[in-house]
Amino acid sequence: MYGKSPARVLPLLLGLQLTALCPAAAVEIYTSGALEAVNGTDVRLKCTFSSFAPVGDALTVTWNFRPRDGGREQFVFYYHMDPFRPMSGRFKDRVVWDGNPERYDVSIILWKLQFDDNGTYTCQVKNPPDVDGLVGSIRLSVVHNVPFSEIFFLAVAIGSACVVMIIVVIAVVLFQHFRKKRWAKRADKDVEIKSKEEEKLKQENKASIYLEESD
């Protein structure tokens, strides 16, 4: 085969087949995708990853930002063994590392949100020899107020149901208490009436005995 012996061609074909069956692994990034936060508050931009290679000192993390209204991409944060915050620009003194590489977490916190922080934040992780993979992104919307979510309404509904159950339990306990108290009063009254009747009967018996002795 083109001057190559079968002994040399066979390992080459086997290697090509293995490459086709086992494609190269890549870093996978996981983010929330979209996020809303109130102006003036702090927000955690969560980014986690998975890698076939163990996490070591070669790990690098790069965060960038692109404004919603367009414009050039801006540097936000960089991590390589230690966090490196921006020394100038809009994010100076406003971003802090909140990740834990051992737990595959490379999140950051952005302080004192402003309306011009609206845009897309990208998270890129390289963990040599695993350096390929897609870049994670978060579309941040800075708003005046965060609208009530379905989770909030669910929490309100569950809380209301718990309050109703507590009220019902208290009502049942009070009802049982007053009913027992009423029964106790009725029992005491019956005993009193019975005692009076017995006393009256004794008096009548004494009177009858006295009359018989007089006769």
UniProtKB/TrEMBL annotation:
<keyword id="KW-0732">Signal</keyword>
<dbReference type="InterPro" id="IPR000920">
    <property type="entry name" value="Myelin_P0-rel"/>
</dbReference>
<dbReference type="GO" id="GO:0098609">
    <property type="term" value="P:cell-cell adhesion"/>
</dbReference>
<dbReference type="InterPro" id="IPR013783">
    <property type="entry name" value="Ig-like_fold"/>
</dbReference>
<dbReference type="Pfam" id="PF07686">
    <property type="entry name" value="V-set"/>
</dbReference>
<keyword id="KW-0393">Immunoglobulin domain</keyword>
<feature type="transmembrane region" description="Helical">
    <location>
        <begin position="151"/>
        <end position="175"/>
    </location>
</feature>
<dbReference type="InterPro" id="IPR007110">
    <property type="entry name" value="Ig-like_dom"/>
</dbReference>
<keyword id="KW-1015">Disulfide bond</keyword>
<feature type="signal peptide">
    <location>
        <begin position="1"/>
        <end position="26"/>
    </location>
</feature>
<dbReference type="InterPro" id="IPR029863">
    <property type="entry name" value="MPZL2_Ig-like_dom"/>
</dbReference>
<keyword id="KW-0472">Membrane</keyword>
<feature type="coiled-coil region">
    <location>
        <begin position="184"/>
        <end position="213"/>
    </location>
</feature>
<keyword id="KW-0812">Transmembrane</keyword>
<protein>
    <submittedName>
        <fullName>Mpzl2 protein</fullName>
    </submittedName>
</protein>
<dbReference type="InterPro" id="IPR036179">
    <property type="entry name" value="Ig-like_dom_sf"/>
</dbReference>
<dbReference type="InterPro" id="IPR003599">
    <property type="entry name" value="Ig_sub"/>
</dbReference>
<keyword id="KW-1133">Transmembrane helix</keyword>
<feature type="domain" description="Ig-like">
    <location>
        <begin position="23"/>
        <end position="141"/>
    </location>
</feature>
<keyword id="KW-0325">Glycoprotein</keyword>
<dbReference type="GO" id="GO:0005886">
    <property type="term" value="C:plasma membrane"/>
</dbReference>
<comment type="similarity">
    <text>Belongs to the myelin P0 protein family.</text>
</comment>
<keyword id="KW-0175">Coiled coil</keyword>
<dbReference type="InterPro" id="IPR013106">
    <property type="entry name" value="Ig_V-set"/>
</dbReference>
